[in-house]
Amino acid sequence: MSGTRSTGRRLVLVLGDQLSPDVAALAAADPSRDVVLMAEVRDETTYVRHHKKKIALVLAAMRHFANELADAGWTVDYVKLDDPENTGSLADEVVRALDRHDYDSLVVTEPGEWRLRQAFESLADRLDASLEILEDDRFVCSHADFERWADGRTALRMENFYREMRRRTGLLMEGDEPAGGRWNYDSENRKPPAPDLDIPPPRRARPDDVTREVLGLVAERFDDHFGDLEPFWFAVTRLKAEQAFTRFVDERLAAFGDYQDAMPADEAFVFHGVVGLHLNLGLLDPLAVCRRVEAAYRDGDVPLNAAEGFIRQIIGWREYVRGIYWLQGPDYANENFFGHIRELPDFYWSADTDMACIRACVSQTREEAYAHHIQRLMVTGNFAMLAGVRPAAVHEWYLAVYADAYEWVELPNTLGMSQFADGGLLASKPYAASGNYINKMSDYCGSCRYAVTRKTGEDACPFNYLYWDFLDRHRDKLEDNHRLGRAYATWDRFDDDRRAAVRTDAGAFLAGL
Ligand code: FAD
Ligand code: DLZ
Ligand code: SF4
Question: In this structure, which residue's CA is closest to atom 1 in ligand 3?
């Protein structure tokens, strides 16, 4: 524990996803006096069984960031995962570091998950030093602002929130009006994949010696975790992340708007930014990337539906789901509106299924630790909800398998948006769809053993009968949702034989999972 003599010196804890030079705890500290602590710990690498690429990304980025801080004049106390003294938890590493030197206080930027925030709050009782948890200001909307926005509203819809963020940031605004006269060009973000699409790949960074050492460590320690470690090409420094983003703006952004929802088989990244993993680590700044995208639009390099579509994802969806996460509190993770209890089918790990769409999305996830939004929402998420999988199991899967996954952003997307487990706090209706939607937006169905046009029977696409069976099973909970009125009217027009066939096929399929 720290000594009784006051040194004024602070221990500044920087977590693995706080790799920004101006993160609150660093901004509040003094490099000539204070010491930065960064620790690779077993608990953070295993609290879910993260994809190998995600662990490598975080540890490699942490090591590079520590070197940059040291170059900038900070004293950095860096604990490696294989340090024999390593206790395995962040809280205990803080206690150990406080023992090493005399500190008056510990300062940390608030962690991005309730789990860690609670751990730090309880740690305060064990410390002689005082503890300061500073708000993470790397977001457009503070907790207080979000609470103010949410206060008194019956429905917390993203669209209203997004308009407020546009006004606040001035992004794509012409005075008080949205550029182009409309706030949202979502309807122009839905082109299906065209056969002749020329899609430039994302920039691939070459691992340097520091990253290679981390890859060796991950290969050895996390061999039994899901996912392919190599090839490993994610950027692990700010400079490389900026280069990757520049490549996206120059080569891919223009078509991002049109093909945002498209799922061409064998094209993992389509025209997406592949920026979430860098934004969430702190290697890229959300407002700075939006300003770059706005400038590309103002310069006439990209159309409005691309620029607006991208900016909406960041200052709209990203900020909004974070607000919901903190507003809802730690119990949000336990919500289960439909009472779903099925465990996650094994093919979410093995990709061993005849459903070509799921096989493609899971295989790609295993190889890249990446899937774009529509794959996550309308293929793997949609299937889990239709099949009645326990939302907490779905949540754990998404948190583990994607390189950009942290609970503050993953949980509302999974539990709220994709599983409707909060009963409609976040989504106005469940994102449930039959095979028809997947067929329209992808070219998976052509190589599938099931026929997307068949509604029931041995060869019918399982999404088809599962969709109707889901609506039927949960009629008491969903019937009053006005956005589902047409679907229930259609179901009611089916004859008895068809309804019975749907129930029988769904029952048999689910029993076989
Ligand atoms: P792009 O398509 O290029 O979009 C640009 C950026 O916008 C993203 O990087 C991200 O920062 C932001 N964004 C877009 N959509 C969302 C959204 N719905 N919520 C928050 N930010 C958004 N995103 C994560 O960052 N981490 C997660 O763990 C995560 N889990 C998800 C789970 C499910 C079930 C679903 C449906 C979505 C999830 N998302 C998550 C949102 C979205 O799918 C990813 O942000 C996106 O696919 C990342 O790829 P990209 O960087 O190429 O994004
Ligand atoms: C995700 C992650 C991993 C894999 N490893 C570490 C680590 O060893 N040390 C660390 O400080 N942070 C790590 N992280 C990021 C934390 O899990 C993250 O800060 C919390 O989940 C809060 O968002
Ligand atoms: Fe997926 Fe159905 Fe298409 Fe097969 S037919 S790829 S299961 S949507």
Answer: 357
